[in-house]
Specification:
The chain is α+β, with helices and mostly antiparallel strands and 741 residues long. The chain is 50% helix and 15% strand.
């Protein structure tokens, strides 16, 4: 039974909480604007409820609270957050109405926040990518759109429990792929960490709950360790008359899990489970000196790790982050990370771009361009560039989002900022496309190097060219910038285009001999089976005899042996266009708990087990219908699956292993430990005799008393794999055993 009066009280309570989140008193016209926005939102979302059963109005109220409390934006942004869904969800409110009721600036922000309802064009590969593109394009006008969108996504993630599992995976993958890196780039570290933790809660629920439980179990232990560690620090800082606030915090679940994966160790071997933060209250002109003074005091008390000192005060990060980071050895023999920063630096670290912008209004900071300003300017250049396919646009933007940057110099001393990992060829294309196309090498700091040489900060570069040089496919293997990749692909496609008509005619002739038409379905099949990325590439390969008549005929010989995959899955006579496939998948998922059962019999539905993560029976998996009509099966935790679910989340196919099937899968095991006579014989005995498993290959190396290596073997399911790992760990001398990614 819905208690309307109680819900009205709750709405008022949340609205008062929003008003209380502002750090400075609101002016009369600002309060009026917020009241007007709340009334409009209540009217627009009347009688609408979320999946949780709560009134929809709770959502915009909570988003507005995050915008003010967690991000630090002002009343205009809060008003936009309150009405961010009204245009999309109602027929009686338009953007013109918003402009009249509020202002052109509010209308522009709301427009940027409004989701795309229509499909941009029938050939669009990813509706999600189009949505991202529209949202990100607003960076050119008003960064507040992105910040409010991050708040909207954060509240959706916090309430994701009430969504169906496939929607949870799609939204969590989008969050990991785009929103968490975006929050990080904009300096919102707390929000970035919460995004990662919440996404892991749905993509890796067992591991998430296991780490969370262990953190809760060891909480009192950590509190005692923190107290013991900071007591002598507080005393020394007080004696030095430095006004500081010291706190300890546990590392996020995701960061611990990431460290467990990269170091291939269990939770019990992760020792830096918490970090200490020291915030000093200093005026701007004394911040740097006070932070280094604190560092000096710390190193008088505890021994520092010289390899772990990070000075982001002298050289702030690209997103404006400033701090000193060091790692100290505690009296308990444990490495502990310590972060030192001023009150101003802390506010920028917590509130990101909003705090950065607030300080830019101060005359003392007005003329200082930070790394965040540089990044935003570069992002705007990308957004203002040539029109791109949504996926290409997203890939380029994300690369710009994630990449750290280096600073290099031209021969004349002009400064150029490039993504870390850039090569000579990337640099040449950054200067001019013709320079890139004719580059044969360079002089870096007066030393000759090849075009694939990776640059480092401080390099001075003079590109050397030749009129005989021209781009090749191999260049794509080592360039990292989207600009270089685009120019190389365009050049190669233009070259291949000369063979287009010739290759197309030859293909028609080949198919005519076996009485096959060349329709959309046939072309998709040929592209897939010949691993040709585009029609142009296919025609080029045919015209240059890289693909022969027999290769094309073989495509249809293989297909005729099995039933059409789409017919088997959806009962259709032929493959319709991708949007119809999407609709059919949605219906199939609705009708059956699982749409794709994985087992020996591939005649039912054709699918591909991805080689990037090589899932085995028992792994949580997901099927994704790709644009070429192939269903790819990935482990849910696979980074590639995260990207694919983010881009093609509307094409996910529920997938499950057939329990009765006795399949075997090729799996890699990585081992390391202390070498001794007979240890390999024991490991081999466990694998072959005790576990009765077949090995494919062994690669074992030992030196100076330690060994490491890999074993490739055939195994039926995850339970058997885990049992094998447990048995191998029992062997004396074996230190680490893990499944290879």
């Amino acid at each position: 039974m819905i208690d309307v009066n109680q819900e009205k009280k709750e709405i008022l309570k949340r609205y008062q909480g929003l008003l209380g989140a502002f750090k400075v008193p609101l002016k009369d016209h600002e309060e009026q604007m917020l009241r007007k926005a709340l009334k409009l939102a209540i009217r627009a979302h009347a009688d609408v409820r979320r999946k949780s059963g709560e009134p929809y109005i709770y959502h915009p109220l909570d988003v507005a609270f995050i915008v003010v409390n967690d991000i630090g934006l002002g009343p205009t942004s809060a008003a936009c957050a309150l009405i961010h869904d009204v245009v999309e969800d109602t027929e009686f409110i338009t953007l013109s109405d918003i402009e009249i009721m509020f202002s052109p600036a509010v209308a522009k922000i709301v427009d940027g926040l409004t989701k795309i309802e229509e499909i941009f064009d029938q050939g669009a590969l990813s509706i999600q990518a189009e949505n991202y593109k529209k949202m990100l394009l607003t960076l050119s006008d008003d960064v507040r759109v992105i910040l409010i969108k991050l708040a909207d996504r954060l509240h959706n993630m916090r309430t994701l429990d009430f969504m169906p599992h496939d929607k949870q995976l799609k939204i969590a993958s989008e969050t990991t792929y785009l929103y968490a890196p975006l929050a990080h780039r904009l300096g919102l570290y707390a929000i970035k960490s919460e995004f990662e933790d919440l996404a892991m809660k749905y993509t890796e629920p067992e591991m998430y709950n296991e780490i969370l439980t262990k953190l809760q179990r060891t909480a009192s232990e950590r509190e005692s360790a923190v107290k013991e560690f900071i007591e002598p620090i507080e005393k020394k800082l007080s004696e030095a008359s430095l006004k500081c606030h010291i706190s300890g915090r546990a590392k996020s679940v995701y960061s611990i899990w990431h460290k467990m994966k990269t170091k291939r160790v269990p939770f019990e071997e992760i020792y830096d489970l918490f970090a200490i933060r020291i915030i000093v209250d200093s005026p701007y002109n004394r911040e740097k000196g006070d932070c280094w003074a604190i560092y000096s005091i710390l190193t008088d008390i505890y021994r520092p790790n010289p390899d772990r000192l990070r000075d982001w005060i002298s050289t702030p990060k690209n997103n404006g982050y400033e701090a000193l980071h060091t790692t100290l050895m505690s009296n308990a023999g444990q490495w502990i990370e310590v972060q030192i920063r001023s009150t101003r630096m802390e506010e920028i670290a917590e509130k990101g771009y909003a705090a950065h912008w607030k300080y830019k209004q101060d005359q003392a900071f007005a003329n200082q361009e930070s790394g965040l300003d540089t990044w935003l300017n570069k992002t705007r250049e990308i957004l203002a560039g040539d029109p791109k396919d949504a996926l290409d646009f997203l890939n380029e933007f994300r690369q710009n989002l994630l990449n750290e940057e280096i600073v290099v110099y031209t021969r004349k001393g002009d400064l150029k900022t490039m993504p870390a990992g850039s090569t000579i060829l990337d640099f040449a294309y950054n200067i001019h496309s013709e320079l890139g196309e004719t580059a044969i090498g360079a002089k870096v700091n007066h030393k000759l190097v090849p075009i694939q040489e990776v640059l480092t900060s401080g390099n001075q570069i003079e590109v050397i060219t030749s009129k005989r040089q021209k781009p090749t496919e191999e260049w794509l293997d080592f360039v990292v910038t989207e600009r270089a990749k685009t120019h190389i692909k365009n050049y190669l496609n233009e070259e291949k285009g000369h063979y287009k008509e010739q290759g197309a005619q030859i293909l028609k002739d080949y198919l005519k001999e076996i009485k096959r038409p060349l329709g959309t379905d046939e072309m998709s099949l040929i592209l897939d089976k010949t691993k040709s990325k585009t029609k142009t590439e296919l025609y080029y390969r045919i015209a240059t005899e890289q693909l022969r008549k027999e290769d094309i005929w073989a495509v249809f010989e293989k297909q005729s042996k099995g039933q059409n995959w789409f017919s088997a899955l959806f009962g259709a006579k032929e493959n319709p266009n991708p949007l119809t496939i999407h609709d059919a998948i949605q219906q199939q998922v609705k009708d059956k708990p699982e749409s794709l059962m994985l087992g020996k019999d591939k005649q039912d539905i054709a699918y591909e087990i991805s080689t990037c993560c090589s899932p085995i029976s028992g792994d949580n998996v997901i099927g994704i219908l790709m644009p070429n009509s192939v269903i790819q099966v990935h482990s849910i935790s696979c980074p590639n699956a995260t990207e694919l679910m983010s881009k093609y989340g509307d094409r996910m196919v529920k997938t499950k292993w057939k329990e009765s099937e006795q399949l075997t899968f090729l799996v890699g095991i990585r081992l390391s430990g202390f070498d001794r006579k007979g240890i390999w014989r024991e490991m081999s005995g466990v694998i072959s005799r005790k576990m009765d498993l077949n090995m494919k290959s062994i690669d074992l190396n030992a030196a100076e008393g330690v060994f490491e290596g890999t074993v490739m073997l055939y195994i039926s399911n995850v339970d058997s794999l885990n049992a094998l790992i447990d048995e191998l760990r029992k062997i004396e001398g074996v230190d680490k055993v893990s499944r290879m990614n």
